[in-house]
Amino acid sequence: MTASSPLADARVSELVGEAVVAPSMHNAQPWRFRYSRESGTFRLYADPERAMLRSDPDGRALRIGCGAALFNLRVALATAGFHADVALLPDPQDTTLLALVHTAPSDDGEEVTGLRLLAPAIRRRHTSRYPFAEKAIPEDIRAGLVDAAQREGAVLSFPESWQARWVEELAEEAEARNLTDQGRERDLARWTRTGAEEADTATDGVPEYAFGPRKHGGRAPMRDFSGGQPVTDRGTTPFEETPHLAVVSTDGDQPVHWLRAGQAIQRVLLLATLKGLATSFSTQALEWPDLRWPLRDPLTGTGQVQMILRLGYGPQGPATPRRPVRDVLVIED
């Protein structure tokens, strides 16, 4: 097989099926794929119709989600025996085209082998909105997660003591603001699926069975996907008093950095899953510019925070719905 030999259509669909299991803000799944049989190339596009105009006006979170899907595609290609040559933002005239992925037979190098090891975690990783145990994460696992982010051009750090409390307070402030901001309320309502029938038939968004219990005590920064409204059989429970939070930062804050951050976050999440950790996100403070700015490294004042992760030992969350691959993929000659 040469570098330009096309993949069978069924294989292309399988690969994209792995890509779209990636997380995205409110599970909006803001991506589209095209595959060219002639060149053996995937194109990843943003889907502006799935943007959140109030919560994510510049499309930062949208591109982070697409970056996570791009990383899953790289892992799937490596598992299928291919190397992915990725060009980010290849066309300045088309801002919706986020990446070109040229495929070539794998040389079984260190990077391809590392990606293959992550493949089993793609389907196992689910956002967990449940309490985690008050149990330390071993230093070797933390170091591995830091290295995973670095491999994708990002920095992962674990805030401690007063800095961790500061991150928690900013998230709490943002959550309180979100519940009284009509624009963000509309974004949340658009992407939540309540009622058994709607939740069970959804192909996107966050269904009520994935909301998790309502927090009653504890310091873990959690989003209330119910918008403060009652949800059947949800219940309440205390969360961690000392949550394990990790901050993912990049050295810039442009679309290319957001795509790199998405790949770094997904690499971290997959490795964490393999190591037996459950994970979730805290994005509330990132949605408010005046709260996002003070999340930067307090010692150096550098770095642009792209994500706050919550990690720990606890139940994996339920799988959330995904759109059929045929709705997000076009195969062309």
Overall description:
- The chain is α/β, with parallel strands linked by helices.
- The protein is built from 10 helices and 13 strands.
- It has helices at residues 9-19, 60-79, 110-118, 121-124, 139-151, 161-178, 182-190, 196-201, 255-274, 289-292; strands at 31-36, 41-46, 82-88, 97-105, 155-157, 192-193, 206-207, 214-215, 236-237, 244-250, 278-281, 304-312, 329-332.
- The chain has a 5-stranded mixed beta sheet, with helices on one face. Strands 5-10-12-11 form a 4-stranded antiparallel beta sheet. Strands 6-7 form a two-stranded parallel sheet.
- Helix 8 (196-201) links the parallel strand 6 and strand 7.
- Helix 2 (60-79) packs across helix 9.
- The model has no long low-confidence stretch (mean pLDDT 94).
Would you tell me the overall average pLDDT? 94
Percent range of helical residues? 25-40%
Q: How many DSSP-defined strands?
A: 13
Q: What overall geometry do the principal axes of the alpha carbons give?
A: globular
Spans of at least 5 consecutive residues whose pLDDT stays below 50 are none
- How is the biggest beta sheet arranged? 5 strands, mixed
Order of strands, widest sheet: 3-4-2-1-13
Radius of gyration: 19 Å
Task: Give the end-to-end Cα distance, rounded to a whole number of Å.
Answer: 18 Å
* Number of helical segments with 4 or more residues: 10
Given helix and strand content, the structural type is: alpha/beta
Helix and strand run: HEEHEEHHHEHHEHEEEEHEHEE
Strand content: 15-25%
